[in-house]
Amino acid sequence: METKMIRLLSKDKQVRIFMIDNTSLVSNLIEQQQINKVCQETLAKTFTISNLLCGLLEGNQRLSIQMVCSNSSESIRCEVDSSGNVNGYCSKALLESKADTIAELIGGRGYIRITKGSETGSMYTGCVDMPYQNITGDFSNYFRKSEQLYTAFQCYYDCDKSQKVVRSRGFLIQLMPFAPEEHLTKWTGWIDEHKMMIEQLPLEQLIPKVFKVADIMAIQPIRLFCGCSREMFYGMINSLGEKELSDIISKKQTVEMNCGICGKSYSFPYNEVAGLIMGG
């Protein structure tokens, strides 16, 4: 599943703007995990911002992004790389959270940890607290404190009464080196003024209407990706106890296994299980 991120640069070369409509990706991601409404929105916004960060990567760089709540067992992890491969998932504890709001879910001791890796093996990790408890403000705070980059994020997320994702969009606004800080305020204010169009119009139509003082620098594919496969679970099946394997085959049962990263489910019927045991 794939979408596209549009990367813009203001005509005065002071600000870069990335925008993405990843409704299909977020919808697919949430369908793979049983998530309540608050966790759903938290994952959607964290994942959307992570998608936007692909545009800041070069070469074969990759990012591992963690949003950790005050209860450290409650977290969201997203993996992205410079090729536009993205994924995200919630910890089991977060899926079981009863929080009524994002602020309550994050709590007073939440933090963001981002690890950047490259093909040379070098790694850098930044860790910053979440004083705003609202995802977008906290990621802006992360970039200001950890990266010394003035950056703003805006996310537009909505779901219907059945919690089906209706809309997921995101914007990154970042000052270029030595650009005055007021340019960031100007652009975020401009986007707020045109909120209705930004929520409703296709991204391509926004450029001449809202971003006409910016040029398209690149259109980058962003795809939901996980390297899991059926073969990865063969070892887990072979590691099941002898009695359990015998019962599966004799009772003609099917083994269900889920990828812990993307949530994809794999089914192994009893005859395939028998073949794996004989082959092993």
UniProtKB/TrEMBL annotation:
This is Molecular chaperone Hsp33. The keyword Disulfide bond applies. The keyword Magnesium does not apply. GO terms for biological process: protein refolding. Transmembrane segments: none annotated. Pfam families: HSP33. GO terms for cellular component: cytoplasm. Keywords: Chaperone, Cytoplasm, Disulfide bond, Redox-active center, Zinc. GO terms for molecular function: protein folding chaperone; unfolded protein binding.
